[in-house]
Write a structure and sequence with these properties.
The protein has about 325 residues and is mainly beta. It has 2 domains: about 1-155, no CATH class; about 160-325, no CATH class. It has helices at about 95-105, 150-155, 195-200, 245-255; strands at about 1-10, 10, 15-25, 30-35, 35-40, 45-50, 55, 60-65, 70-75, 80-85, 110-120, 125-140, 160-170, 175, 185-190, 205-210, 215-220, 225-230, 235-240, 260-265, 275-280, 285-295, 295-300, 310-320, 320-325. The strands form 5 sheets. Strands 1, 4, 5, 6, 7, 8, 11 and 12 form an 8-stranded mixed beta sheet that branches. It has a 5-stranded antiparallel beta sheet with strand order 18-19-13-24-25, with no helix packed on it. A 4-stranded antiparallel beta sheet has the order 2-3-10-9, with no helix packed on it. β7 (about 55) and β8 form a beta hairpin.
Length: about 325
């Protein structure tokens, strides 16, 4: 089974080469599944490289290079494995596309392809320690992914009893009021990075909520059961060990009944930095409150999404025989 690890690329505009760290030995990478979270770490000297390829987005039809003279090389050291790819003239169509997407920061991460042979399970640290693996390839990708393997998760002595995965898109005009009239705030919008301070502040609590009340959290950032990762387009929300409350069971029942669930940001009203922008500048009617920074209290899972809001939600519950993923 092929698995992937991710690191940022290093690219100078106008160049014909891209390089960076493929693996930092000893680092822990979170792997999230429907049943919870475990971590991967790789020991120095564990990786074997014979014949590896470089491609775009793990698409083997978009081949960019190869080891052993094909422009792709690795340098293995005591603390990390580095990678370098050189694109020779004349450029292939895929190579030209890759360089253009690197320059525009569309492609921004390495994704190492591994075939794992040997590993140990550290139950106390919920960590899979990789001691032997073959590097079969590496890809230039638009964003990292952190999906784990349910089969690996089951090797730990305990795994979680409920989990959540969702995403929320920035730059949406969400309707928050139908009140008529001029200069009335009827919509809100969150710019990319608007929640970043709340996410990065270790002392600030953010919860996965079943209502607008922060006390109704079924998972939280400070407890280590809620994970928030954002980029220029989307905020990804993942939770493990979700509390088995009546409200959570009600959401599971709504999902089973076929209702579409959505994520809705819960913020401290009028906090942070924002500007009120006319929805239709020509007639100066309703305003869109546009936040560039705001205090995030949590994300509410609701069967009644705000009009204009776009998000994705998946819930999981544990069955008597293991994990059932919906």
């Amino acid at each position: 089974m092929s698995e992937h690890l991710y690191f940022d690329v290093e690219y100078a505009k106008g160049g014909r080469a891209v390089e960076g760290t493929a693996v930092r030995y000893g680092d822990k990478a979170a792997r999230r599944t429907g049943g919870g979270v475990y971590y991967d770490t790789i020991r120095p000297g564990s990786l074997k490289i014979d014949d590896a390829t470089l491609n775009i987005q793990h698409d083997r039809k978009r081949l960019l290079g190869r080891t052993n003279g094909g422009g792709l090389s690795f340098q293995d050291g005591p603390d990390r494995l580095r990678v370098r790819a050189e694109f020779a003239e004349p450029l292939t169509r895929d190579a030209a596309d890759a360089l253009q997407m690197l320059e525009k920061r569309i492609l921004r991460a390495w994704s190492l392809e591994l075939s794992i042979r040997d590993y140990k399970i550290d139950d106390a640290e919920r960590t899979r320690v990789i001691t032997g693996a073959d590097v079969t390839g590496i890809a230039l990708v638009d964003r990292p992914g952190f999906t784990g393997s349910a089969a690996v998760l089951r090797e730990f002595s305990d795994y979680q009893d409920g989990a959540f995965e969702g995403s929320y898109k920035y730059n949406q005009d969400e309707t928050i009021s139908d009140e008529p009239g001029r200069a009335v705030v009827r919509k809100r919008k969150f710019r990319p990075g608007a929640f970043r301070q709340s996410i990065q502040d270790p002392g600030h609590e953010v919860g996965l909520l079943t209502s607008r009340n922060p006390n109704d959290a079924v998972a939280s950032k400070r407890s280590g059961t809620l994970f928030l990762e954002d980029d220029d387009e989307t905020l990804n929300v993942t939770a493990s060990s979700v509390a088995d409350t009546a409200a959570w069971r009600d959401l599971l029942a709504k999902r089973d009944a076929g209702l579409a669930l959505a994520l809705q940001p819960v913020i401290k009203a009028d906090s942070g930095e924002y500007e009120d922008i006319p929805e239709n500048p020509g007639d100066g009617t309703a305003l869109v409150r546009t936040y560039s920074a705001v205090k995030l209290l949590g994300f509410m899972v609701t069967p009644r999404p705000t009009k204009g809001s776009e998000s994705e939600v998946n819930l999981w519950a544990q069955s008597p025989l293991g994990l059932t993923v919906h």
